[in-house]
């Protein structure tokens, strides 16, 4: 009986990670509320019974999709933290973020922004979850910039938390614009301007007579 149930629920050779990747794209394109169960199961190649058995309800699936997105699509953010200086950390993050927001093989923008648009029927749980996820990324950047300040890599008086928040505001703003169709080169132009305010920018070493 269990074997028959499994066969009705999902096909042989079912790849849970591949199905989750397809769910990521559906949530990314439609947002949490806009993604129907039919959209999700159709993209994942399974029925509703199997979806609930493998991933839980829609909110559980969404949380797992966001974790999958953070692991795969946001790897560039973790890699940026390994750069040797604060300026290079920020520059690499914002540059690779602009590229990630405009990948031709992915929806434009960012799942953590688009996913929570118009969330209301769940009493704000999804929006709160996404906000917490974004804040976790900001906290990781704050910790890296705090270390830079302790090492003397940032000017005395620099507020690492405020600097990290500034960087995230730029990246999240670019995500909104990317979703609206703003091209990659325009996002990089915004990054060019934003980087001028970051300690360590080449222009900060210039003097005027």
UniProtKB/TrEMBL annotation:
GO molecular function: DNA binding
Keywords, ordered alphabetically: DNA-binding, Transcription, Transcription regulation
Record keyword Transcription regulation present: yes
Entry annotated with the keyword Transcription: yes
Lineage: Bacteria, Bacillati, Actinomycetota, Actinomycetes, Micromonosporales
One Pfam assignment: TetR_C_13
Known DNA-binding region: 36-55
Domain of life: Bacteria
Ranges for domain HTH tetR-type: 13-73
Taxonomic source organism: Actinoplanes octamycinicus
UniProt name for this protein: AcrR family transcriptional regulator
InterPro entries, sorted: Homeodomain-like_sf, HTH_TetR, Tet_transcr_reg_TetR-rel_C_sf, TetR_C
């Amino acid at each position: 009986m269990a074997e028959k149930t499994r066969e009705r629920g999902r096909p042989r050779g079912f790849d849970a990670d591949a199905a989750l990747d397809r769910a990521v794209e559906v949530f990314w394109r439609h947002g949490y509320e806009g993604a129907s169960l039919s959209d999700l199961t159709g993209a994942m190649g399974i029925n509703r019974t199997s979806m609930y058995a493998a991933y839980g309800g829609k909110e559980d699936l969404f949380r797992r999709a966001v974790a999958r997105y953070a692991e795969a699509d946001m790897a560039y953010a973790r890699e940026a933290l390994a750069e040797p200086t604060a300026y290079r950390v920020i520059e690499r993050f914002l540059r690779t973020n602009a590229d990630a927001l405009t990948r031709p093989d992915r929806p434009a923008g960012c799942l953590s922004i688009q996913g929570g648009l118009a969330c209301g029927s769940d009493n704000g749980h999804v929006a709160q979850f996404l906000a917490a996820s974004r804040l976790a990324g900001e906290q990781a950047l704050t910790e890296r910039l705090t270390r830079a300040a302790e090492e003397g890599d940032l000017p005395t008086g620099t507020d690492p938390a405020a600097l990290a928040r500034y960087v995230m505001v730029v990246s999240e703003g670019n995500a909104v614009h990317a979703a609206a169709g703003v091209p990659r080169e325009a996002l990089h132009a915004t990054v060019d301007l934003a980087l001028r305010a970051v300690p360590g920018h080449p222009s900060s070493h210039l003097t005027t007579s």
